[in-house]
Amino acid sequence: MARHKEADKRLFGNVFVCKVCKAKRKADPHKVKSDKVKCRKCNAKKLRPKNREIRTSTGAGAAAAATKDKKKK
Ligand SMILES: [Zn+2]
User: Fold this and answer.
1) Fewer Cβ close by (within 10 Å): the C or N end of the chain?
2) Domain span at residue 26?
3) What is the Å distance from ligand 1's center to 66 Cα?
4) Overall number of domains in the chain
5) How far is the CA of 7 from the centre of ligand 1 (A)?
6) Terminal CA-to-CA distance of the chain, rounded, Å?
7) What pLDDT digit, counting tens, does each position of 8-39 carry?
């Protein structure tokens, strides 16, 4: 599947994921940085951007390679 940078930005640009309960939250990145945005479910301020390249912890090997291949094209 082709990935479009602009579509990515539109879809994931302002979406963050709670590190505690994994809830998705759409928010302004600046607000997230300054801790003004809390998770709806658990009120945690630990949010990470949804579009962070690859999940680094679980089985990233194959997925990472595949993603890199796509980018080169
Ligand atoms: Zn949460």
Assistant:
1) N
2) 5-51+58-72
3) 30
4) 1
5) 26
6) 12
7) 777 767 899 999 999 999 999 899 999 999 99
